[in-house]
Design a protein that fits this description.
Helices cover 82% and strands 0% of the residues. With 153 residues, it is an all-alpha fold. The protein has one domain: Orthogonal Bundle (Helix Hairpins). The protein is elongated, with a radius of gyration of 18 Å. It starts with a helix and ends in an 11-residue tail after the last helix. The structure holds adenosine-5'-triphosphate. Adenosine-5'-triphosphate binds at residues 19, 21, 63, 67, 74, 77-78, 81-82, 85-86, 89. It is found in: Cell membrane. InterPro entries: DAGK, DAGK_sf, UDPK. Belongs to the bacterial diacylglycerol kinase family. Keywords: ATP-binding, Cell membrane, Kinase, Lipid biosynthesis, Lipid metabolism, Membrane, Nucleotide-binding, Phospholipid biosynthesis, Phospholipid metabolism, Transferase, Transmembrane, Transmembrane helix. This is Diacylglycerol kinase.
Length: 153
Amino acid sequence: MGRSFACAGRGLWRALRAERNLRIHLAATALVFSLAPFYPFDRGDWALLFLACGLVWGAELLNTAVERLCDRVCPDRDRAIGWVKDAAAGGVLACAVFAAGAGVCLFADPAGLRALGAAIATPLGAGAALALLAALGLFVLCGGKRKDDKTHF
Ligand SMILES: Nc1ncnc2c1ncn2[C@@H]1O[C@H](COP(=O)(O)OP(=O)(O)OP(=O)(O)O)[C@@H](O)[C@H]1O
């Protein structure tokens, strides 16, 4: 059991280091959960947030695995491989679009928008928002493995 978790954690870590798209999803998740406390969400809303983020994460990780497997078994251009990769990428897109739809429904709440606006209007709030955005941007752009890192394929 512990070993399975260790393998899964290692896979997650390697994928995060290798795939910028996954780091974008992590940054978006961090942003969503930083904004959420300003909204009057009930338990169902929180559950929806967790589900939507988990759905996109799961789809992106499976897409990454499919891409790596395809590249391993067939390094050359191949019609069938292209089809498989396109379908996997389409799966991520579908999950992301529907998760974004859920996000718009949740975050368009006027009371939450007012609370968020009031927080950002203070110097401390504006500074914290800018610092968060800068940290997430840095993580997405610079959090990947170096080109010469050969610890995984
Ligand atoms: N071996 C191949 N044979 C045919 N088409 C391919 C092949 N490799 C990639 N493609 C085409 O290029 C697209 C992008 O594939 P690639 O493996 O570069 O993914 P990617 O751009 O790294 O995707 P992501 O941004 O999700 O990581 C595929 O969806 C597919 O249409």
